[in-house]
Amino acid sequence: MNAIDYRLMFVTDDRIKDDTLFFKILEASLKGGTTIVQLREKQLHTKLFYHRAQQAKSICETYNVPLIINDRVDIALAINADGVHLGQNDMPVNIARKLLGENKIIGLSVSNIQQAEASNRLNINYIGISPIFSTNTKTKDLDKPMGISGLKNIRKISNNPIVCIGGVDEKNVSEIIKNGANGIAVVSAISKAKNPENAAKYLKQLL
Ligand code: TZP
Ligand code: MG
């Protein structure tokens, strides 16, 4: 697999129901310099999720940016996405790897040092520290924020690239990168910005 640029992951905002707006924001984020997209849908039925994924894939291809799918290995396979992002309670990594093959990206959320240690023994491409700071965007199954001290501890022991998610914005991005993360993953800092393209551009500059 080519080296993946994890610097700026845009995680799509499933609060946006209107498809036109949803894809407008996705495209703006790509114009602004998003380096990888994670399609995250917690509420859509499978058929609608699949259609959003198909469309997202075609937009990401135009910008030559990889698209990964949150939770759903089946949808990643169906649209030939570049990979998946899995949580601790999603499909086991070894099974996802079997299904996806060696050339796809698998990201895994970790919320503590034990999970990060265990992830060193898994066939994954990156870990997501989840959450690094507090956030209102995700309310279900959210662990305690790990903060910069958590990031530092995980950096010391992890073999994998690290992406930080949760409450990341232009005010804290520099500190995250300074402390060893390879990238940030954001929802609101782009999706809720007045101008999502400029927001992505600004975040990218800070990376
Ligand atoms: N996983 C951990 S925190 C989070 C997810 C999907 C939400 C991040 O959203 P925001 O708006 O960037 O804080
Ligand atoms: Mg999940």
TrEMBL record:
Segments forming domain Thiamine phosphate synthase/TenI: 8-190
Cofactor note: Binds 1 Mg(2+) ion per subunit.
Any Gene Ontology biological process: thiamine biosynthetic process
Keyword terms: Magnesium, Metal-binding, Thiamine biosynthesis, Transferase
EC code: 2.5.1.3
Enzyme class, broadest EC rank: transferase
Residues annotated as binding 4-amino-2-methyl-5-(diphosphooxymethyl)pyrimidine: Q38, L39, R40, E41, K42, N70, S109, K138
Cofactor(s) needed by this chain: Mg(2+)
Function of the molecule: Condenses 4-methyl-5-(beta-hydroxyethyl)thiazole monophosphate (THZ-P) and 2-methyl-4-amino-5-hydroxymethyl pyrimidine pyrophosphate (HMP-PP) to form thiamine monophosphate (TMP).
Record-stated family: Belongs to the thiamine-phosphate synthase family.
Listed name of the protein: Thiamine-phosphate synthase
Gene from which the chain derives: thiE
